[in-house]
């Protein structure tokens, strides 16, 4: 399926070198290309550039992107709380 970002194809798990999982996809000319990722799916969606089919990115699901955003917000809130606590402890020590 072609879209504004490239052509979307299904890539199938191929093998697992060095902890990264390699996936194989075929371009419109029938040539195979490989893409490594940490995904643990048997099939993944890959978007590749038709001008350079070896250039490809994994299309992440909405659930995965949402989970990443939530974890980033929790991390940011934790960092903010830690910095605020450190500020109050240091300012109380200097003032008081």
How would you characterize this protein structure?
There is one protein chain. With 96 residues, this protein is an alpha+beta fold. It has one helix and six strands, in the order ββββββα. Strands 1, 2, 3, 4, 5 and 6 form a six-stranded antiparallel β-sheet that branches. A hairpin with a 5-residue loop joins strand 3 and strand 4. The longest helix has 34 residues, at 62-95. It is elongated and about 75 Å long. The chain starts with a strand and ends with a helix. The mean pLDDT is 84.
Radius of gyration: 22 Å
Instruction: Describe the main β-sheet briefly.
Output: 6 strands, antiparallel
| Helix content, binned percent | 25-40%
* Apparent shape: elongated
DSSP summary: helix tally: 1
Give the SSE string: EEEEEEH
Mean pLDDT: 84
Number of strands: 6
Structural class of the secondary structure composition? alpha+beta
Oligomer: single chain
End-to-end gap = 66 Å
Strand content: 35-45%
């Amino acid at each position: 399926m072609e879209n504004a970002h490239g052509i979307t194809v299904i890539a199938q798990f191929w093998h697992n070198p060095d902890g990264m999982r390699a996936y194989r996809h075929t371009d419109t000319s029938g040539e195979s290309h490989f893409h490594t990722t940490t995904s643990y799916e048997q099939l993944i969606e890959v978007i590749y550039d038709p001008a350079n089919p070896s250039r490809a990115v994994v299309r992440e699901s909405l659930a995965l992107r949402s989970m990443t955003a939530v974890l980033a917000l929790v991390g940011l809130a934790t960092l903010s709380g830690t910095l605020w606590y450190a500020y109050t402890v240091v300012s109380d020590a200097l003032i008081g």
